[in-house]
Amino acid sequence: MRLFLKISAVFTMIFLVLAPAANSLSNERLQVAASIAPLHSLVSGVTHGVNETVLIVPAGESPHEFSMKPSQMKKITEAKAVFFVSKGLETFLHNPLRSLPAGVAKAEVAEISGITLLKNSTGQNDPHVWLSPKNAEKIVRTAAKWMARINPRQRNVYKKNARETIKKLKKLDATIRKEVAGVSDIPYAVFHDAYRYFESEYSMNGIGSITENPEIPQSAAGLKHIRAKIRESGAVCVFSEPQYSEKRMRAAAEGSGARTAFLDPLGVGIEPGPNLYFEMMENLARSLKNCLSN
After folding, report:
1. To pair with 190 at 20 to 30 A between CA atoms, which of 1, 62, 132, 274?
2. Going by C-beta distance under 8 Å and a sequence separation of 6 or more, which residues neighbour residue 221?
3. pLDDT by residue (tens digit) across 64-99?
């Protein structure tokens, strides 16, 4: 009987020692969700090796037209933090965010203190903030702070990952500047009003967009206006995006002599993860250079 009691006492002590460690490990592996692939990439760079960061909008789908499925809703409800760009971009998140428990962090990166915000042609804040590597740096720094509050045991890992990601962003910025330096003054048109941050950062000569809102079909008057603008400006290229039909791009370029090509602000066809943002931005700069310099 005494032997049984001693063995029971030993197992009880082992359980008391291991239980907090198991619970702590469970907390450290908490799930984080991010709305679109470029933001998911930046957040994944911070959480790498600690947390699973799940992507809500599959790469290749536009957040402008996205409709949530139950499986995607599940990703949000199981997360301890949800990172999204802005209420104006991911309108599909309005109701899901309202229904989340009070303890879930809702991280709207367009509201980060010090982030550069530009106005679009309608006078509203342009939500495409990630297309500036300097804004991306602010997102990474803030994501590390947010994650440290959620999971303080891993604070040093988040800080280290953020430092390494920011170092890569500075290198990326220098690479892009070199890539587009010889074509920055050449006029071009884009499919929709998404590139103001990139154009401002690198002094590009974008003359306007085919459409303000990709969800709304182009009117005959709007098409006539952009065709005239392309001809008058001497735009060399008209760019569409992989997730949209080429039809509107070709209709806008018709009769102007402008070449047609693609720009991708979402990382279509790139494996989601920490490297997506860097590959996407390099591809964007390369696409501009290739079309504008031919």
Report:
1. 274
2. none
3. 778 888 888 888 888 999 999 999 899 999 888 988
CA distance 81 to 10: 39
- Domain assignment present for residue 9? The answer is no
Joined tokens for residue 273: 């993860």
Predicted pLDDT of residue 57:
93
Claim to verify: residue 116 and residue 38 sit in the same structural domain: yes
Provide the residue range defining the domain that includes 272: 182-293
- Within 206-294, strands assigned E span 206-211, 237-240, 259-262
In a domain, 11, yes or no: no
Low-confidence spans in the chain with pLDDT less than 50: 1-28
How far from 14 is each of 19, 26, 53, CA to CA, in Å?
8, 18, 33
- Note every long-range contact of 77-81, with CB atoms under 8 Å and residues 24 or more positions apart, other chains counting: 78/31, 79/30, 79/31, 79/32, 79/33, 79/54, 79/104, 80/30, 80/31, 80/32, 80/104, 80/105, 80/150, 80/151, 81/32, 81/33, 81/105, 81/106, 81/107, 81/146, 81/147, 81/150
Q: What are phi and psi of 206, to 5 degrees?
A: -75, 130
Which candidate, 48, 206, 47, 58, places its Cα nearest to that of 120?
206
**Which tokens belong to 176?**
């892009």
